[in-house]
Amino acid sequence: MTRLSFDQLVNLKMLLNVEGIGPGKIRNLLTVLKTTENILHSSYNSLLKVDGIHKNLASRIQKAHSNINEMRCRTERELNILEKINAEIITVWDAEYPDILKKIYDPPILLYCKGKISETDKYSIGIVGTRNPSNYGKIQAERFAAGISSHNIAITSGLARGIDTVSHRAVLKSKGRTIAVVGSGLDVIYPPENKGLFDEIAESGLILSEFEPGSKPDAQNFPRRNRIISGLSLGILVIETKQTGGAMITASFALDQNREVFAVPGNIGSLQSEGTNLLIQKGEAKLVVNPDDLIQELGIKLKPLIGKNIPKPDVSLNMFEEKIVQNLGPEPIQIDKIAELSSMSTSDCLVYLLSLEFKGVVKQFPGKMFALL
To answer: What is the CATH class of 115-303?
Structure first.
């Protein structure tokens, strides 16, 4: 449960209900005015000094406090509903709030949670795709979800029909951890046929929503939901989607959030594969054919979670490449230092490092820095 007092929570919800106020503007207001109470009681001119607050918005903020009693009753009802369904509310200032999500451009200020939040969730992988998958798509979703989960990596998805549902079920079947981000209130399960799946995930994993109890699964909710799926994940795997599918929106959010994007290639004659193949063609997603491909790509980021259990690519190395590999680790090292440790010239060392990069053994970072995958 959030560490905010009831009155602080009421003030925050009042601000979030002002038309034109979102997470970004609330952060700007708090930077200048320090507390939600100060914001709601600030003068018109004080509000105008805050970046992004124009005249109409300042007027709406000043009028918001007139609805304080209504919001207090509404918040009390909301907390009662959450208690009945064994859920809670956390804010971006609470310790339980996922650190990885805090770092995106517009993290949700409030999150409604059902289930357990785990420290290892920051290493999760998102899997998204069409609501109408082919048999091929279902097979790949199950294979990738179970395979990635076998490394104790959480799988995040959206509880939607199709690829999402298959992925969640595959993880549960393999006794892994899965996170569902939904586009409705936690008391409005959508699609309704996933009620059993919802309960299973809540029992062993986590259900998250940005939307207050009672919120219906309206179409405009799902793009907002998608930015949370990508924001919670180190990388997003797209398995079958049309060019206009919601999974393409999630991939776009992932790229904006500096997350890795992966795609499973599909039949070029299949509508369900148009989006995934386009992502690969445009160089926006890395082609993967098995779970280990993805884990190798994210190797350094996953090191704290799975350590030495990251699968190594099946490649042969010459004696010079092996010598370099022996002097590398998960932390990036500058080219001149690598050359010194390997007793090679910098130019020769760079040639072998680039060869190792092509083989998927090392990764290059800015400033001619290299590390093992």
So the answer is: alpha beta
pLDDT at 315 exceeding the cut of 70: no
CATH code of the region 312-372: 1.10.10.10
Q: Find tokens 């179970």 and name the residue.
A: 146
Q: Edge-to-edge strands of the sheet including 155-157?
A: 88-91, 110-115, 206-209, 178-182, 155-157, 125-129, 235-239, 260-263, 286-287
pLDDT category of residue 308 using cuts at 50, 70 and 90: low
State the pLDDT at residue 265: 93
**Domain limits, the chain:** 6-84, 115-303, 312-372
What pLDDT sits at residue 306? Answer: 66
CATH topology assigned to domain 6-84: DNA polymerase; domain 1 (1.10.150)
User: Could you tell me which residue, 314 or 3, shows the higher pLDDT?
Assistant: 3
**Calpha distance 116→190 (Å, rounded):** 21
pLDDT recorded at residue 143: 95
312 pLDDT higher than 60: no
pLDDT at 128 over 70: yes
